[in-house]
C-alpha cells in the first residue's frame, strides 16, 4: 500500500449524515480525518464542478470544453497560476500542509464514485484526474485572480489614450464590480434574542452547481457549519462554530498592478527593461490542447514585475501583472484551519493575520458579546498612480514598497453594515460600489428596534432601487415630449422605485435605462472607445463600451457629464423610443431572468426563472443595462448566523447542495431562494440521516 493510500485509510474513520436538503454533516475523530471526509463528500457531490475548476486552474479546460475555453486557459498559463499555487503550497507550515493534503486525499478517494454519477464526464469524454497537494490553492487562485478587477486599469488606460487623461474619471463607476456582497452585524442590544446576529449574501456569478457548498464539519476540537468553496478545505468566508461566527464582503481594495513592459529578444532568451536597465526575463513555451481544434502554443514570459499577460517580445507593447501571492509565495491558507478552531472574535481576528487574497471586510460576533469589523488581506504600498492605470515597469517610482499595516478596523456600535461601499477600506482602493445598498440596509435595520433571524429575509429581499434617482431627475426636466413619452415620464415619477418581478413600472424604467445607455454608448463623442484595444479576450467584459456606460450611468448623468454629450436630449430621445413598448403591461420579471453559468451548457431550455431586484438593490440580481436584462450575477447564498442559538440560524443557496443533475438535492432550494425564504440550519444530529456508503 502506498503512503498516500495509507493516509487515506487512516482518514476514513468519518461518518456522513444528511439533513432534509442533502447538506452533508461530517463527523470524525480528528481534524485530518475530517478534512479527508470533506474532500471525499465534495468529490462525490461536486465531481464535475471541482474537476472543471482544477483544469481551469492549470489551463487545461479547453482540452474537453473546446475553443470557447481557450482564452481563459491562455491567461492562466501566462499568469503562471499553477506555478504560483505550487510556490504557495511549498511555503505552507507543516501542519497546514498536512491538513490540505488530507483534503486532497479525500478528493482523490471520492472522484471515481462522483464522476460515475455525473453525466458531464461521459458527455465530454473527460476522465477524472488526480489532485495534487497544491490543487486546492490553485482552485482558490482561479476563483479570485480577477477578483480585484485589475482589468479596470486597462480600461482607464484605453480611455486616457483615446480621450485624454482627464476623461478617465468621467467613467468612475462606484457601481457593480465583478463580485461583491452585502453583510450586516447587529449587536445584542439590537436583537430580540439577547445575542448578536450576523447576516448577508455574497454576490457572485450564479453557477450550476453553485459556488458555495453548505456543509458541517465536526470533530472533538470543533463543530462548524458554513459555506465552503468546493475544492478548498475548511470554511473560509462564512462560518458559525457555535461560540463565534464570521462573514466577509469584498473590500474593493486595489492590490494588483499592471506594468507596461519593454521586451526584446536575445537569441532564445528574452530581456525586459527595468529601473536598472535590461535584465533577463523568464521565458518558456507551453502547448494548450483544444478539443475539436489544433493545439495552441503559448509563450510564457515573466519579468521582475510579474508575468506578462498582454503582448510579448515581438509586440510594440506588453503588460505584466504583479499580484501578492506571486510576490509573497503565500496565499494565506494557514488562516483556514485556525478559523475552524475559533471560539471568540479575538480568535478570528488572530487567524486573519495570515490572510492574503482576496482582500475582504470581515465581520464577526461571539456569544460573549465580542464584535469585530475589520479589513483582512495583503495590500502593497506604492505610488498612487499604480491604482489608476498601467504604469511603466522601467520607472523605480512605481515599485512596491512594502505592505499596508495595520489594516483598517472599526468599533461596532449597535450595528455595522458592509456592502462594498467606500467606507472602512477606502484608503486601500480606487473605485467602490455605490453607497445605495449600504444606506438602504442601514435604513431598514434602523426601522426596527429588535430583530430575529426569521425576520432578516425582509432585508435580503428588499428591491428599492436608490440608483434610479439621477435618470428620473433628468427625465423630470425633459420637455417637448410626445404624448406617449410624457405619459411614461409621469408614470415613472410616480413609481415607488421597487424592482419587483411583477412591477410593470420597473420594466418601463429598465427599458428606458437600457435605451439611454445605448444612446450614450453610440454617441460620436465616444466613438474612439468603441474599438476595443488589442487585449486578450478574457478582459473583454471590462473593456466593452456599452457595459462600461451602463455601470457608470449614474455618474454620467450627474454633475460631470461627458463633454459634447447632451444627456437631456439623449434621455428625451430614449423616452420617445421606448414609450410605446413601456406602455405595455410587461412585468419586470418577464425581462429579468436568471441565466446561471454552466461549464457545459445544455440544450436551450428557454428563459430561466423570473427575478426580483436589480444590481443596486439590496436584492442585487445584476443585469447589464444596455446589453441584457437577464441576470448572471446575484446572491450566491443567503445566511443569518444567530449567536443566541445556532439552530435558529438560517441559510439558502440558489439551486441545491448537490451538483449532479437529477439528484433530489440538485435544485431543491431553488423555490425558497426565488421566494426570498431562508431554510433552517439543522444542528441536531438526531434529525439527520446517516449515509452508510
From TrEMBL:
SUPFAM superfamilies: N-terminal nucleophile aminohydrolases (Ntn hydrolases). Residues 1-20 are annotated as: Disordered. The keyword Transmembrane does not apply. Pfam families: Penicil_amidase. Gene3D superfamilies: 1.10.1400.10, 2.30.120.10, Glutamine Phosphoribosylpyrophosphate, subunit 1, domain 1, Penicillin Amidohydrolase, domain 1. Coiled coil: none annotated. Keywords: Hydrolase, Zymogen. Residues 1-19 have a biased composition (Basic and acidic residues). The keyword Transferase does not apply. Belongs to the peptidase S45 family. This is Penicillin amidase.
